[in-house]
Each structure stands twice: as C-alpha cells, then as structure tokens.
Q: What sequence folds into this?
C-alpha cells in the first residue's frame, strides 16, 4: 500500500487519503461523545450486489488501546471497509494507523482475514454504514 496515500486538507485537518481522492469528497458523518470524528470519502463508495466498500477516516481525540499498534498512541485511522447493508454487518479490509504527528504507525491488510462484525445501534460504525448504504 506504500505510495497509495497522500496528505489532503479536510476541514482544516490534514489527513492521509488514498491517491486520487479529493479533499472535497470527504464528509463528516458523525462525532461521538469523546469528540472523535468519523468521515467517509463519498468518491470511494462502490456497490457490488449487497456489499458496499468505502474509505473511512477516524480522527481520535484520545488514543485508544487497539493492540495492533504496539506501544505507540494512535490518533487517526484510515479504514477501507466493506458493509452488507441488508445484514447490517461490516468487515475491515485495510487499516492504516497514525500517531499524533500523522506518521504511519502500521498498515494492515485484512482483505481475506477481516472478521465480520455486526454494527451496534447508535455507534459511529453504524452511522458510517448507514451513510454509505443510503449513498450507494
């Protein structure tokens, strides 16, 4: 995945985005009670039968303990996700984690091994899935 991401300005925030995706295509979908923002790139939304794939960016106000980032704090995540709109389930396909200085901590490709998860009602993940399902 090296070389496939570039920095773009999004609502005054610099984020790492897939090459070819304009900053204007990113839309803030929701903000949770801790101030974490979830954005979706509208240009990345692709439907294939009952599956929708898209890029999501999460700006984290506090570093979560994710477990895949060793001992470094994570303050941003680019997620390529597939969603089954009928079943309300999603699967992470790719994940890029960033530190507070916007440096890549880790890249993970889950294309064939990403676990299927049901979106919890009212969660940021459910809000993003609902958004892309309505857009496609």
A:
């Amino acid at each position: 995945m090296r070389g496939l991401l570039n920095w773009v300005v999004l609502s005054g925030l610099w984020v790492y985005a897939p090459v070819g995706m304009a900053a204007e295509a990113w839309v803030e979908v929701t903000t949770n009670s801790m101030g974490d923002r979830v954005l979706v790139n509208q240009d990345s939304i692709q439907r294939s039968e009952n599956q929708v794939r898209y890029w999501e960016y999460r700006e984290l106000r506090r570093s979560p303990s994710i477990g895949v980032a060793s001992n470094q704090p994570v303050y941003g995540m680019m997620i390529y996700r597939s969603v089954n709109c009928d079943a309300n389930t999603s699967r992470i396909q790719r994940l890029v984690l960033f530190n507070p200085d916007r440096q890549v901590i880790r890249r993970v490709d889950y294309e064939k091994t990403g676990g299927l998860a049901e979106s919890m009602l009212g969660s940021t993940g459910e809000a993003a899935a609902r958004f892309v399902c309505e857009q496609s």
Residues 1-5, 9-13 have pLDDT under 50 and may be disordered. The chain has one domain: 5-135. The helical segments are 124-135.
